Amino acid sequence: MKDAKVRLYVDQPLGVGQSVPLGRDQAHYLFGVMRLAVGAHILLFNGKDGEWRAEVVQAGKRAGELSCIEQTKPLQMPPDLWLIFAPIKKARTDFIVEKAAEMGAAMIMPVQTEYTNSDRIRQDRLQAHALEAAEQCGGTYVPEVTDIQKLDRLLADWPEDRNLMFCDEAEVGAAKTLGAANGEKWAILIGPEGGFSPKERERLHAHPKAHVVSLGPRILRADTAAVAALTVWQQQLGDW
Amino acid sequence: MKDAKVRLYVDQPLGVGQSVPLGRDQAHYLFGVMRLAVGAHILLFNGKDGEWRAEVVQAGKRAGELSCIEQTKPLQMPPDLWLIFAPIKKARTDFIVEKAAEMGAAMIMPVQTEYTNSDRIRQDRLQAHALEAAEQCGGTYVPEVTDIQKLDRLLADWPEDRNLMFCDEAEVGAAKTLGAANGEKWAILIGPEGGFSPKERERLHAHPKAHVVSLGPRILRADTAAVAALTVWQQQLGDW
């Protein structure tokens, strides 16, 4: 069997014998950049039908066509986990989104806190980052990046059945474990670089679904904290 | 007490009343960039004497002087943990070093593996990154970044009393826990983007001190894997 080194997200249905027409950007990437020719194999996923091996049947400069051969992985949904974070500098925000997709979050939610510097995000750009990370990490699902919303509002409308893992740097001696049952809905909240405001901390500590977890004695940058918190959760309750 | 927002690594001894002369770069940073004046407070650490509050007693364009007032933190040594990794692209290598310092590794060791692209590193630049990360994260210790060495050689000379946590992406169903006693010497090994070679994997699996650990069903980039592996270790055996 030919080795398929390229992995691509497509927006079309995938199944045995299914033809997948390619748009201009995809054709440019596959045939211009990656230099694939007719007969080459690539892997496809669409977030719904798992991963498929497909063959290039037509390769042009501006268009092309693939044909699905066989399923190589079933759809593997990530656990029902939200990653909520306060956007920071551009490069580190991009990293958080990339990491959340790699680590297996289902939904990535930027929030505005009292100490958040930026109140706008480029949702389309962050969604593209999540997609690229899914292509790279072998995932069959692309987490959704939501638009930015206020933390206050999000907490006010908090779903009754979702637990909230909250990493409080100011909390010395917080628990290291979550100690909760598997299969529940969860969210992880990462604060901004300046931490949460006293009012926000009070509100979070009083939250009925909140679980405070410690990430060690050093102050972690927001992007480091995101990966560390996702690791703690995935190890204890997730799909690792 | 005045709020000390700046935190600086210095190369001099720290103690009550100790005078700390500043070099050109430090004077430029404190008085040019951060706009501190005589009487301002900053935090100092040198990797040996803990963290100290100091006052600016002289502020010039090319030099200056600080005077230590009181110790604000004792020296907190990180656990005896090495992070061994194969250098990747520049930005991601920088991230790994920064993350290792934040997460509390004592030694950061770049290695050349069979599938490592780059065989050189800028040790001085990486050491400066580790130092900056220590300044930012509130640590009182700066991990040492060693020069690059061959993985083969490192394994041949492996110390008898040091465990090796090895994250093998090809290992489905590996343990999630380390199951070892506290207080031992450890090293974490992160592979290059292309993974380990079959020969390297064989050698690592046969290593008497190796513990294989799984980091989940998705393929993590090397920088993500470094933070995730450090989290697993710190949570189970470290200072978290």
TrEMBL record, chains A, B:
Pfam families: Methyltrans_RNA, PUA_4
Predominant localisation class: cytoplasm
Compartment(s) where it occurs, according to its Swiss-Prot or TrEMBL record: Cytoplasm
Top-tier EC class: transferase
InterPro entries tied to this protein: Alpha/beta_knot_MTases (IPR029028), PUA-like_sf (IPR015947), RsmE (IPR006700), RsmE_MTase_dom (IPR046886), RsmE_PUA-like (IPR046887), tRNA_m1G_MTases_N (IPR029026)
CDD domains with a match to the protein in the record: RsmE-like (cd18084)
Record EC number: 2.1.1.193
Residues covered by the Ribosomal RNA small subunit methyltransferase E methyltransferase domain: 79-234
Assigned protein family: Belongs to the RNA methyltransferase RsmE family.
Role, per record: Specifically methylates the N3 position of the uracil ring of uridine 1498 (m3U1498) in 16S rRNA. Acts on the fully assembled 30S ribosomal subunit.
Entry protein name: Ribosomal RNA small subunit methyltransferase E
